[in-house]
Write a structure and sequence with these properties.
With about 140 residues, the protein is α+β, with helices and mostly antiparallel strands. Helices cover about 30% and strands about 40% of the residues.
């Protein structure tokens, strides 16, 4: 990982603007960003809120590996993977992937790679709360 790369599990709201500012330099012509937000439905149910759990040392180690893999594949200046834990309300950001690069294609591809790998390999658990109950969400990112 490079000095400006950011990998964090956080319990407070994610400040996407501050994160962008910390990664951007004059050498960067592209900032690609994915922000995952809590939606109000899943699997035909009305969702009230979510709770995320993680063991930060283990999750952040895997997140660092994702950044290193992205750096091997694309010429990127900096990358951030930040995921929130705890209770999140509808509309709140749960995850932010941000990539700074000289060119858009590298930034967009690395950003997409980051969220896809994070959803598949990082040990973060999501529990949905809906009218009448709650359930742990299990499965691939394309299913959720």
């Amino acid at each position: 990982m490079a000095p400006r790369d950011v990998v964090r599990i956080v319990s407070d709201p994610i400040d996407t603007s501050a994160l962008m500012a910390s990664l951007r330099t004059d050498a960067c012509g592209a900032l690609a960003c994915f922000v995952g937000v809590v939606r109000d439905h899943h699997a035909g149910r009305s969702v009230h809120h979510l709770e995320y759990e993680a063991y930060p040392p283990m999750a952040e180690q895997e997140m660092r590996r994702i950044v290193e893999e992205a750096r091997e594949r694309w010429p990127i200046e900096a990358m951030a993977l930040v995921h929130r834990t705890g209770r999140l309300e509808i509309g709140e950001a749960s995850v932010v992937i941000l990539v700074a690069s000289a060119h858009r294609r590298a930034a967009l591809d690395a950003c997409d790679y980051g969220i896809e790998r994070l959803k598949k390999t990082v040990p973060i658990w999501k529990k949905e709360f809906f009218e009448g109950g709650d359930a742990w969400v299990v499965g691939d990112a394309r299913d959720a």
